[in-house]
Structures are given as structure tokens and as C-alpha cells.
Amino acid sequence: MAAVPGGRRSGLAAGARFFCTAGRGLEPFLMREVRSRLAATQVEYISGKVFFTTCSDLNMLKKLKSAERLFLLIKKQLPFNVSSVSKGKIFNEMQRLTNDDPESWLNAISIWKNLLELDAKKVKLSQKNANPLKRKVGENDIIAKKLKTERMQEIQEKKECQLEKQIEEETLEQGNFTTKRDKSQEELQNGGAEAVDTHNQNDLTFRVSCRCSGAIAKTFTAQEVGRVIGIALMKQFGWKADLRNPNLEIFIHLSDIYSVVGIPVFRVPLASRAYIKTAGLRSTVAWAMASLAEIKAGAVVLDPMCGLGTILLEAAKEWPDVYYVGADVSDSQLLGACDNLKAAGLKDKIELLKVSVIGQSPKAIEIKTVTNGT
Amino acid sequence: MKLLTHNLLSSHVRGVGPRGFPLRLQATEVRISPVEFNPDFVARMIPKVEWAALLEAADTLHLVEVPKEPIQGYEHDERFLRKMHHVLLEVDVLEGTLQCPESGRLFPISRGIPNMLLSDEETET
């Protein structure tokens, strides 16, 4: 990838530890990506999650293409043993997740705040209204949520990333995107940055999202565990629970392999792209396939069964100095692809053809073929 | 359809073989729109261009200032690259036809997308 290793730094000397969820089969791509894009160290893959350490800031983290969601790690430890012990005893053990080592929680939260503050300062500096493409984040999120197969206990949340407001304990209006953004900009301009700095730990509102799999899922429901942990957190740190619009979200996954606790870094999953209007193939898979073609500058790249053009969109975003051509036999797919190209601003980079690749192929020199057609 | 794409297309009507290139271009609607100039990218495309086909197509569209051939040291000649950039990437045929030079078969271009689909009988085995 063309990125400078490490990219912009978050100011954390030692780097912070994160983990990402990844679709099955994409883990090697993700491991490669965090190493090259984020200069990540201590990269481990354990059962559906990739753990890594990096100094990169939110802007670089946002660029990850093969990950589903990104979390700041609070805790990773051995799984709970549910074989012969009573339920009550196990609840006690779960409470130890929060009570045994409050430092690790507070540490992670301060790193999380630092990341957001850095980002908020950049927002203040840029001083521009949200660009039109950002509106699409809302729409895409709806599509992404429908496609997602996560079994988390989540209430439908608002789609935008309310960075500046997370620290204040206000009830947020469910207004439209631009109004909120303007309001936040105002706050920042009025010294909102200071408000962020002087945040009081006790004003934090939170919500616990819990997922159980394996043996533990047979004994406990996600709600039970979520409740136990939630109560323990309230007792330990004095935070208030807010199920609708919390400042802080805590994500817990209890499985046969590990118990993991983290803070989701972005409200919107990484897999939901601002530049894809109508998803065909899942964006992470499309990017991974494009990466396999080893596209170099100056190449001509053909997707002979492009459908809605998802692979070409991912490729064009990552490797821009290339001539992309998409072919399909279906009018409706080509129309959708055309739409997508317009929405992504990539009409100039990607050409479309109505062609059947069976018995017909464009005359071309050095074509690299990427496809997902069946 | 940009002229760079036209430069890559040939007909595969049965029996036509290599004589299916280049396709004869006829345009009823053309749009010229600015595209960000990337000299490095254009320079890399130059070796791939079939010049006779390009000149023929450019002529049909009455384009002016089309270089007749790559000049020495074109990689660093911005004027040359800008002209090529314009011809290859900024001219978009929205409506028209492409004709197979050998069989005469017409392929329509609609909304900028050429339709190269052949029926079963027409397809090469």
C-alpha cells in the first residue's frame, strides 16, 4: 500500500492495543493490512479477531479495508470455566472483570478519549461543513446493518459519529445530521475543546453490548451477562447507564477461547463505506479480492462480471493510477454500477461495457482480471 | 465510452478473428468533460495505444490537435501528455455505434455504455 508506515501518530509513545473483527477467511488479509498500513506490532489472530498494537491515529485506523469493526482493547483473558461451577459463582467471576483491575479500564478509556480529542481538534481546524458524501454514511449504515450477521444486543443507534458531544452528559436531540454537526462545531469554537479536556469521569454514560458463544452461551444469555457487568461498572466507576445514546460503549465477547472486553472506536462499522452507495459484494471481500490482483500503477484492470462494481470501487479507491473497466451482461446491474460510480465520484476512473465474456473479450494489452462472477 | 476504451475493443463475431479491430466509430452524442490530469498515468498508457485506431476515431469525432504518434521523450513533455490526456480520457461518446470492420455488425452505444452482446449464432466457437 502507498501509505507511509505508521502514518500520523496519535501521540502515544508505546502505541495502543486494538482488536478487529474480521469475516471468516479475511484474517490473513487483515493481519497483512495492519502491518503495512499501521506499522502494527504484536499482531495475533485468535478465533475471528485480530489483535494488534499501533501508534496510528483515527484517520489511519479508519482506512482499514478488510476489517468489520475496530475496538480498543480493555481486557483479554482466559475463558470462564462453566463446567461444574454454580451460576452465581460465575457471575462473581464476571464481576472481577471490572473490579480486579480498574486501572486497565481507566487506561483504555483515557486512550479512547485521547484518540477522539485529537480527531475533534482536526475537525475544529478544518472548519468546514460535512461534505455531501458524508451524508451517505447514514444511508449505507442502514444497508450495512441489514447485511450484518452480528448477534449483539444493540438498540438501533443514530448513525453519525458524535465526537465532540461524547464527553458532555447531554441528552442529544434526534435531529438531522447537519444541525448536530453545526451545533458541535459551535461548541468547539466556543472552547469546546477545553470542555473535552476537563471531562469528569463520573459524567460518563455507557452501555454494555455482550455476546456469548460456545459453552457459556448454553448457560447464560447475553442480556444476563450484560446486566451483571453493567451493574458492576456502575458500582466501580459511578457511571450512568444509557441504553439509547451512551457516550461510551463497552463490548464484551465471552467464548470458549477467550473473554474479551473492548471499546468500539467508531459508531459505524469499518465495513460500511461512505463511497459505496449500493453494496453488491461485501466491501471487505471486494477489497481483499482486488488486493490479490497485485494492481500496479499504469495497469488496465478488467472485472468481466462486475455487477454493481463493488470490486472496481474498492480497487479504484486503493490503487488510483489505473484504468478500470467493468463488464456485465445485465442492464440493471450496469445501471446500478453507473449510479455507484457517480456517487463515489469515480466516473472518470472506471468505464463500463455491456459484454458477455463467454466467446467475447476486449482486445487489450496486459489486462489483469479480477472478478467474483459465478 | 472514452477513446481509450474504444482503443481496447474489438469484435468477436464468428470468423472475424483479428480483423475485428478497430471498430468503426459513429457518434450522435459526445460529451467533453474535464478529467483530472495525471501525467504519470497518461505516460504509462501511451505504449498501450494503437495509434491508427486512435487517429481514425479522433478523426470521426472531428477532434483537433491530436498527436500523430508518440514523440521522443514524451514522458516528460507536458504539452504532448495533456493533448493525449484530452483525446483519451476527456472525450466521452454517449450515443452512437461501433461497427465491426469485417462483418459489418453494428454495436450500439447507449448512455455511454457500448453493448457488445452477440447472439449465439454470431459468437465465435
From TrEMBL, chain A:
Gene Ontology BP annotations: tRNA methylation
Statement: the UniProt record of this protein carries the keyword Transferase: yes
Coiled-coil ranges from the UniProt annotation: none
CDD domains, per database record: THUMP_AdoMetMT
Keywords: Methyltransferase, RNA-binding, Transferase
GO molecular function, a single term: tRNA (guanine) methyltransferase activity
Domain of life: Eukaryota
The THUMP domain, residue ranges: 141-265
GO cellular component labels: tRNA methyltransferase complex
Record-stated family: Belongs to the methyltransferase superfamily.
Protein's name according to its UniProt entry: THUMP domain-containing protein 2 isoform X3
Gene behind the chain: THUMPD2
Automatic annotation (TrEMBL), chain B:
InterPro entries: Trm112 (IPR039127), Trm112-like (IPR005651)
Gene3D superfamilies: 2.20.25.10
Family, similarity comment: Belongs to the TRM112 family.
Entries under Pfam families matching the protein: Trm112p
Taxonomic path: Eukaryota, Metazoa, Chordata, Craniata, Vertebrata
Organism: Physeter macrocephalus
Official protein name in the record: Multifunctional methyltransferase subunit TRM112-like protein
Annotated Gene Ontology cellular component terms: nucleoplasm; perinuclear region of cytoplasm; protein-containing complex
Example of a GO biological process term: tRNA methylation
Keywords carried by this UniProt record: Cytoplasm, Nucleus
GO terms of molecular function: protein heterodimerization activity; protein methyltransferase activity; tRNA methyltransferase activator activity
Localization, UniProt: Cytoplasm, Perinuclear region; Nucleus, Nucleoplasm
